[in-house]
Structures are given as structure tokens and as C-alpha cells.
UniProtKB/TrEMBL annotation:
CDD domains: PLDc_SF. InterPro entries: PLipase_D/transphosphatidylase. This is PLD phosphodiesterase domain-containing protein. It comes from the Eukaryota. Gene3D superfamilies: Endonuclease Chain A. It comes from Glonium stellatum. GO terms for molecular function: catalytic activity.
Amino acid sequence: MAPDPEQRTQPHPLDIDNITKPWRSELLSRQEELKYDRPNYYINDPSSLTTSSFANTFITGTGDDIFSAVLPHIAYAESEIIFITCFWAKSASLSKLSHTLRLLSSKALQQGGPKIRVRIGFSSLSLFQKLFHTPSVRGKIYPLDIWAKKLGLPFPSELQGLDLEIKSIFLLPFSVMHPKFIIIDRKKVFLPGCNVSWEAWLEGCVELSGPIVQQFMRFWEEFWANDGPGVPNIPTTASTPASEPPQLFSSNTPRPAHHITPLAPTTSIPAIFLPSPHHLNPRFRPFASPSQTHAPPTPLNTFLLHLFSHAHDSIHLQTPNLTSPPVLTALLRALRRGVAVHILTSSRLMILEQLVTAG
């Protein structure tokens, strides 16, 4: 039961050093466990993950809503798009992405300059793909002749203005890469919770700019671009793409959960980049009891569990799947400390996954 709101203390002021110091210390103390993570470039200096950012926009809605808001930014890109997702499936979102890539290609051809560089990465396409995927961390690059048939993208002849490469990485036995981000011209990054798929879930997306973008670039270079000749420089321009480009897609059926909130930042805010790398767990047991389940000490897991254990007033959690024993344990402990815990999920969402993983 949540505490009475009238009896709660006021939220404590944010002290970044106080938050990150024990987190950095724990990561350093577990370097031996982290040295096989991919990527792991930060394990000797976790402080390199602290930076700053501008939070520009927050978007809520279904995946289709979110991509309808984000894709116009892609259409207005000048030099480069890096598009990383987890699950890839034929859907309205994929159709809209295909339309956007056609627009981007046409713009590049009309301008007569260099091709716009586009790199797409995903982890999960189908059961067959996962069963027979290369186990190499270098992943698989998809040849041009199967873009349309296998991936649902336009034919290469429709994308001649783009320097496009598409890669999937899936590490056996079942290690999908969940991080999702879209980097535009190395100037701003969108963090959608949704996949390129048909899933009509309540999702969120935040748009960031500033130094945090280079953290996402580094992660992409170390993991997704680990087999290339190096990341080239891109042309720099004095102009910045419009923060709110014209809409490309409209809906005749407004959804109550769909909302775009401009944050209009005036100053940068402290930021912590939390990689979620591939972590090999040799002690993994599929049917282990919750008491024997331990979260891999990745920067993301370590930081979130630290926040849960040090929460003073309230925790608000929005998730499609709440079955992780370490998270459940941390939330129950927070409740015992008098912390108000609010969880927003969907009653009919991910039923099979929750039955399998609940223990």
C-alpha cells in the first residue's frame, strides 16, 4: 500500500555526484565480470559516462504515434541518420519509415550533393532469423537485393540518394539488443521505447541534444559499427534542422494517450549515459528461483537498482513487463521504507512473456 500523500516529505534536491559516486564505485569493483561485455569501453573509467544534455521534447503514444512524430525529423536530415531498434516487423511504422527514406533520398538527389548516410540496425526479425543468425558480434549486413522482399523497405532504385547499410546483430542463444535510438546529423538523438513493429503499446520517447549525443555515437561505433573502416566525418553546416519540422503523417483518429510536450530547455542538465551492452552470463539458469536471480552488473541495471534503493519519496515506473526479480525486490523494499510506488502497465500486454518469466 502506498503511503498517504499528505505524509510524504518533499523531494530531496538532486545531487549528481552523490548519485553517481557509489554507482561508479560498484562498476569499478566488478570489472572482472564486465570485461567480456560488448561493448565495454567504459569499464576502466565509468565517470566517462557522465555528461550533459538538453531535453527538448517528450512524446507519448503508441509506436505508430511516436514514429509519426519522429520521422519528419529524419526527412529533414542533412548528412546522416543512425537508426537502431530491437524488433523489426512489417507494420504501419515500417511503411512510414519507408516513405520517409524515399523523401530523404529524393531530397539528396535534388540538392545534388553527396549521398545522405543512413545506417539501420536491428536485432530481431523472425524466429528463423534468430535460429540461423551468425553468432559473431559483427552481425549480418543485408544485401541490396533483399531489402524490399525480406525487410519491407523500398527497392534500392528508390533510394539512390542514400548511402544505406542495414545490419542485424543477434547473439545466441537469445540475446537481443534492446537499446533503441535515432541520431540525426550527430546533433540530436531520439530515444523511442517502441520497435518498428505493429505493437500498439503505450510508449514514450524523449528528444535530446548537446554532449549526450556523442555518447550515443560512441556506443554505436563500438558495437554496431565495429567491423567498418572507421566512422567518417560528416559535413557541418551553420544551420540546424528545424526542431519541429512539418508533419508528414496525420491521423483521423486522435488517441488520448498521444501527446507531444515541448520542453523548451534554456540550460543544459546533467546526464548519465547508461549503456545496456550484451552481457554473457555463464551462470544463467532458465528456471532458477527468484532468490537466485541476479541482475547483470551493466551500467543501466546497476544505476536503476541504486536509484530504487535510495529513493526517498516516490517512484513512477512505466513498463510493458514487470517480472524481473531484482526489480521487484527493490520495489518491495522501497514500499517498506515508505516510498510511494506508482506502476503504469497494460493489463493485456506481454501475457506470455510474463507467465514464462514470472517464476
